[in-house]
Batch of 2 targets.
Target 1
Amino acid sequence: MTKLQGFEFWRKTLKEARFVVAPMVDQSELAWRLLSRRHGAQLCYTPMLHAQVFVRDANYRKENLYNEVCEEDRPLITQFCANDPEVFLQAALLAQDYCDAIDLNLGCPQMIAKRGLHIRLANEKLSVPITCKIRVFKEIEKTVRYAQMLEKAGCQLLTVHGRTKDQKGAVTGIASWEHIKAVRKAVHIPVFANGNIQHLSDVERCIQETGVQGVMSAEGNLHNPAVFEGRSPPVWEMAEEYLELVKQYPPCSLSYVRAHLFKLWHHTLQIHQDLREELAKVKNLEALANVSKQLRLRCQEETAKGKDVEEKHGSLPFPHWICQPYVRPLPKEPVANGTCQGSEVKKTMCQKRPLEDSDSSAYTLSKNKLKKRSRNPNKNFCPQQKPKYIKCDQCGNPKGNKCVFNLCRGCCKKKAFKEVADCPSCTLGLYVFVDMYVAVLVFKTVTHLFLKNAFSPSFV
């Protein structure tokens, strides 16, 4: 079957998707994707997966992609972060049968990725299209050249986040749609825009101003999964529906569920601080659902007392129990001594630690490595000088030195149990233990018989 490319891929495979749920670390898992699809999302990405771990760890693959092949969860794009083109290709080959395309996260591009090696190799070897997600450079021209290079390397769809790699946290700022518009005009593949999406009206305005094929939402979707429906439902409606999906499609990590409830109930938890602490401490899904239920009951009591009118006079456009975006407060910029505090905050946050030299000089090490160096002055952090070990064929852990199956001790024991196969090296300790146990039993039996006969009349 011929691999679809560019606009044909967007039209036929992605069904001209316009409303897109972004790839979010530990946040765009199956249950959340299904919730978003039920409320207007037309395309979803998996959480950003680590290519090297995906290749090495079968459990990681199962938990993040192989766990539940769901017909409702399509079209679906799997996103990876990767430094090594070969490792990225291996991960993509393992994932391609479970999704409709493979995406490479180039939000903070490495030099090797800038040259397009990942994209070119993946485009040649994969049976599904390769797509990319990038952040913009300060200069529009540089951003355009970067996008054109990726298209030339084989990228079939490009998502452009209209912020630079330094615009994070307290200095997030406004995404530049001008950069996105320039990229859209310069390339001949579909483009998705990302940034400044809080309501459905923002989606429509972004498409009109930039000319993109679709719009991706991350924060807006987390605070309101119905953002693409153009409505703002009560928080408990989304929370309870999500929790039902979590039960229906297990397993889902408790940390994912907790994080989603914190996002959904964000504004309410600013008021009910006691339940915020309880939500952070509970240890199972039922307890999380109970906290959400308590929040719902409190909000409904406030509604019955008519407090919703009072709440609207605050900084929020709706009462706190309504799904609505969270807008990060801008850094304070008081001018005390002729300097702008906001610029100082940005300068501090954007400052980078220098890369480590080959000799791992003390002044280039991280704080954690400096602590280790203080405990062991001979500690060597150079990766080239670290001892190499042979990996287990199944899990990637160090293999047993004398294991005949090339497995680690744990995998060897499982193999021996399932296939009744013995490895002299890994099972030697077990044999020694059994021999000693049998010897003790024989000794006790002989001793018991001797003592019993010694005191009997016939023995005398």
Target 2
Amino acid sequence: MVSIPEYYEGKNVLLTGATGFMGKVLLEKLLRSCPKVKAVYILVRHKAGQTPQERMEEMISCKLFDRLRDEQPGFKEKIIAVTSELTQSELDLSEEDKEKLIDCINIVFHCAATVRFNETLRDAVQLNVIATQQLIILAQRMKNLEVFMHVSTAYAYCNRKHIEEIIYPPPVDPKKLIGSLEWMDDGLVKDITPKLIGDRPNTYTYTKALAEYIVQQEGAKLNIAIIRPSIVGASWKEPFPAGKGILRTMRASNSAVADLVPVDVVVNTTLAAAWYSGVNRYSRPRNIMVYNCTTGGTNPFHWGEVEYYLNLSFKMNPLEQALRRPNVNIRSNPLLHQYWTAVSHILPALLHDVVLRLTDAAGEQAQLQYLAAQEVTRARENDGRAADQGYQRSQGG
């Protein structure tokens, strides 16, 4: 069996969600640990006046890619930004880009998703279900595809007490739901959402369960693997331990299990799962391989312990470039949580806004003063030259 770097050698990879948290880490790890990968195509949309290429350039300029930059200075040449909008028909790909992907892609990593818990059902279905469906349809046309790796969540079936590594029947037929949403207005969708999601806590977990079923049904002829991470947290080791100290309070029970998994562990598992499915694509059973990437079942860690050890760790190992001295408060009482949210999050954010506005205003005023000073200097220089010329004329010069 070939090693993981050997398997990815010469491969063309398609990655969705590359600008997101997990997608960026996966991109960096793949390029750094598998240096002979041929190219990584990333689907990126226009955003805030930036082109996909500009967004890619900005993304790879961050500290996350410093180690890769030192080890492989030319890594940028392997990243190819492809203009795409996952919420649009056929992913809004140009015919040229579509044909290119169909001809060359060997491995697909589908990381893109909306992870907002309060997302409307219509928007969550559009990105988590319909976009997945359209990507599967595109993957079926890929001539050299070896593996389709779908990133799901361990909470897709959070209404079950025990979750095995299988795909469970969906809460509703995804195709019927998609068809219904086409004629329902937003008010009706909002009204029926609680009834539809049932005992699931939000539209995120509901639509991720639907997406798994879509992957199973629509991609029956593909070599597919699914990874289900729990709560993806800051990196443990690779490319460096990370944290910013921004989140300072959250509502949780101290006795509840905090199923946190470092992002580098999730990424390593994802790359290894794709490798295993790829090298065994002709011999393994045809059923979809599912990997639950969690900690709660074998090494439970509670939120009360998270608070204690995080605060202890921050004192012993201060973070680089932290915005404030990190401190974590975990409260189960909703009133206490709201108090700490106001004191630790909202008020500091408002103060930062005021400081930034004042700094910006001061900078603008300084720039105006500088420009005015330049105008005065130029005026004096012109007056001086005019006086010299007048003096020379008076002397017959």
